[in-house]
Structures are given as structure tokens and as C-alpha cells.
Amino acid sequence: MKGPPFMSHRIEDVNSCTKKIICTFEGDFISNEIGIELQKKSKEAQLKGFRKGKAPLSLVAKIYGQEAESKALERFISEKCFDVFEAEKIRPLHAPMIADLDYKPKEKIHFEAVVEIVPTVVIAEDYLSSKKFDAYKAVEVSKEELENAVKGKLSKHAIYKEADSNHVIANNDKVLVKFHVSVPEDESIASFEDEAEVVAGSEQSDFNLGQEILSLKLNDKKTFSFKENESAKERSVEAQILEVKVQEIPELTAEELTAEFQVSSMEELNNKTKEELEVAAKNRFKEEHLKKIFEMMREEIACDVPKSLVEQEYQNSVEQFVQMAKRFGINPDLKENKYLEGMKAEAATNVHNEILLNQLIEDWKVEVSEDDVKDLMNLVALQSGKSKEEVESFFNSNNEKKFELEYRKKREKVLDLMVEKTNVL
To answer: Burial level of 351, CB count in 10 A (0-12/13-18/19+)?
Structure first.
């Protein structure tokens, strides 16, 4: 719709992430659009006594005039809002919320529209380099850690035999565990019981069972506390060992080692695995170090966090929570679930972190090359089992997914720069 120029508009900053647009138009701005709406309606309307599309326009206007006027007004306001956004270089995060509408047919249209934007954050150029942090201390890989890691690599060749009653559960044992989870009374999820086969020592098992069962024996019971995340309440878990199987790994030939691990001997496999463990330890340090940086930045750098982004992040977390609950046959009552309260604060923290991260990407002019993108596509191909050509074709034909891939690389680069500027490695 092409309308006359704006009569007047002004912008007010509600806060650093919220803009209010105030627009006033005097005169007849939407009569033509109302007529167009009625013409459309007359072609569709099937009124009593007339064939479809044959009712007089005056009768259609009498019945559908208010509806047509509302649609025309809504479209006019929407278009004028986005004209303002374009003129003022405002990038809204959502459709404008309209308030204080004053509409007088053929005379005046006045409204206020509120939108959220990603706020601009001021971060001093030497902010991170001026801070002091504890430097990384190289971790010595123990003999036990190395043995367990090598066993893990060779586990696909393993044979499992039932252990005797005196066997003490160790890393890589396969253990059948019966567990009972007691949920606090003020949560809507009921306590529940289940069984699971767990690899002893695993850090990926539900309720951290892989770690908690270490050093137990057949038929032993253990009660421990568990939290899903920092904001969740503690739950009591009682585990009982029902069955234990011990891993035995046959020796591999030089040909088998070369084919699977690109090494020709067990000594080479041990050395390669040790290097990987040292890299993993350094990466864990980087992860914890970045947490400290973000905690410091959130505390020291003021930032209004858009509620719409927090809500989006929160809804994603809720969806993951529901999916996890359903794995145990539970349909949680989301209206009364106390566990979700902490997730809202966590969502706000995540959004705050991303705002800071994006500001650094902009400030440091972090870019990705075609080679960077290709490397990521190759990684996706490797992880998905698809060919490189299939993956490249998918991303090159889907701009949104390719943008996500590029942002993933930018994010990775800026996180590395954050660590580099704090001079801890």
C-alpha cells in the first residue's frame, strides 16, 4: 500500500533495548484501502438472496464494513511502523506492540508502537587485556587416566563377562542399575523408579550414575544428591547394583591399529591418547575460564536484556526439559513446576552472554572465510555420515542454515580471542 508521507513521528528510548515509536497522521489515509478490502469481500461473500459475489457493494459494506476498516487500519499501522524502522535504522526483534490507538475515520490516526532491539553495549578496547586471571597449569595425565582412555577407545572390540560378587566396580564396567529418584514435594513431577545399563565412569549418564557407582559391588546400594543444573533443586537418588559385567579387550594387530587409529603400535596409541587428554584438559580450563569472564562482564557491564529473547530462550529450555521428562514416561505440569522458575533466570543469563558476545564480534570485526565454512561443512559431513557434496548442497541452498553455520564459526573465533586477550595460556 502506498500512502502519503508521514505527518509526524518521533522515537523515545524506553531503555537500551526498547524503543517507542509515536506516530500521528491527520487526514483521510485508509478510505481507499477500506474500499479495496470491501471489493475483495464482495467477491467472496455469499449473502442470502444473492449468488456468490453478486451482492451489492452497499450491502457488503453494511455487513462487513467494520471488519474491512479494521484490516485496513491494521495493515496501515504495520506498514508505517516498518517505514519508521527503515528510516531510523531500527532492527526490531518482534512485531510491534501497538498501544494508545486514537483513530477518527477520515480525520486522524495516532498510535504508539513498542519494540525491542538488541542493545549496543560499550566495552572498552583494553577491557579484557587489563584484567588479571590465574594462568593455566599443565595437567599431568596419570597412568590410570591413560589406561582408562585407551580402554575406552578399544571398547568396541571388548568382550563383557559377568563379574563375581567381590568385584569392585571400575571404569568401563557395564552395570545394570535400579534407581529411585525422590522429587521435592513442591514440584509437580512425581518421584519415579527405573532401571538402566550404565558404563561405569561415564560422565554422560543420567543423574551422574556412571560416576556414583564407582567402587560399589554387586547388590550394593547408594543414596546421593543430584541437581540438573545450578538453578534446580536437589533430588535424592537411591541406586542399587543388579548386575556387573567386566570388560576384556583382546590385543589388536598392527594392521588393525593402523586402520582404526592411524598408529602402528600400542605405544603410539598411548602417546596419541595422552596428547588428546592434555588437549581436553586445556579445553576444560578454557571453558571454566570463559565462564569466569562472562560472570565478570555481566557484573561490570550494564545491559538491558530484551524480554522477547529471554522468553524465546526460556521456551527452548522448557521444550528440552519436557523431552527429558517424557523419556521417563512423565508429563510435567508446567503451570506449577518450581523447577522452571530457575530456568527463567538462566535464560536471561544466556541472552546477556550472547549480547556481550555479539558486541565483541562487532567490535573486533570477526569474520569467517569460505575455507572456515567449508571446514565446518566437512565436520558436519563427518558427524552425520553424509557426503561432503550433500552437506555443501544443503547449506548453499539454505541461507538461514548457512548463516547459522557462519555464526557458529564467528562465535568460536571470538571465544578463542577472549581467552587469548586474557593471556592465561
So the answer is: buried
Measured CA angle at 307 (ends 304, 311), to 5 deg: 140
CB count in 10 Å sphere of residue 54:
12
Whole-number pLDDT of residue 347: 93
267-303 tens-digit pLDDT? 999 999 999 999 999 999 999 999 999 999 999 998 8
Query: What is the three-class DSSP state of 413?
Result: helix
Alpha-carbon distances, residue 172 vs 5, 149, 214, 287, 383 (angstroms): 73, 10, 10, 26, 24
The C-alpha cell of 168 is what?
569392585
In which residue are the cell numbers 513446576 written?
337
Residues 6+ apart with CB under 8 A from 245: 160, 161, 162, 163, 173, 174, 175
CA distance 102 to 105: 10
Which parts of the chain have pLDDT scores under 70?
A: 1-6, 186-189, 231, 335-339
**Do the Cβ atoms of 219 and 241 come closer than 8 Å?**
yes
- Angle, vertex CA 99, rays to CA 95 and CA 102, nearest 5: 125
Asked if 371 contacts 266 with a C-beta cutoff of 8 angstroms, the reply is no
CB 348 within 8 A of CB 310: yes
Cα distance between residue 407 and residue 411, in whole Å: 6
What CA–CA distance (Å, rounded) separates 295 from 206?
28
pLDDT for res 42: 82
Q: Which residues of 57-89 are buried (b: 16+ CB within 10 A; e: fewer)?
A: eeebbeebeeebbebbbeebbeebbeebbeeee
